[in-house]
Amino acid sequence: MKRFNLIVTTFRRQEAIAASELRDLLTYLGDKEPEVEMTKISGLITASTSLDPFYVIEKVREILSSEPWRISSLLRFIPVEEVVSTKIEDIAEAAGKLSSKIPRESSFRITVEKRHTSLSSQDIIKAVAEKIERRVDLKNPDYIVLIEVLGGVTGVSVIKPEQIVSSMKHEKSEHI
User: Fold this and answer.
1) SS3 category, 165
2) Which of 71, 48, 47 has its CA nearest to residue 59?
3) What is the pTM of this model?
4) Per DSSP, which regions of 11-101 are E strands?
5) Is the pLDDT of residue 118 over 90?
6) Whether residues 75 and 107 fall in one domain
């Protein structure tokens, strides 16, 4: 099974350019040999980096503030903590394990982004929710249980809402 710890979106048909840019960016941040791969999904690339994906997100946010021209074809950066096969029970087990990061008093929401699968989002959400004993807040959660289905593999993360970086949102917010 392909392992990765970062999903990055780009413009459709710009995957090769984005893959090169991501490789250069990860090298700039200190990874000696990042593995960047174009997926079969248009507009999506994955990376296996020796760097902590949350560190990468933090550094990308800094770069977007100080040197936004460094990032031109990379749109969204999504950290991935676990990669499992796209089976509801595997996804739920991984999410349940990662949910220990959510403090008892904190709230969460489950977000499913599916590509190339016939699994139902509702079935995934139901199975994952059964594994997490925390308060649900759909509008303003403290944490997001993020399920990224990429065909036969699924990335699972428990993140704070600000731990996904969008160069497009950043660009817009800087100009308001």
Assistant:
1) strand
2) 71
3) 0.91
4) 35-38, 44-48, 74-79, 82-85
5) yes
6) no
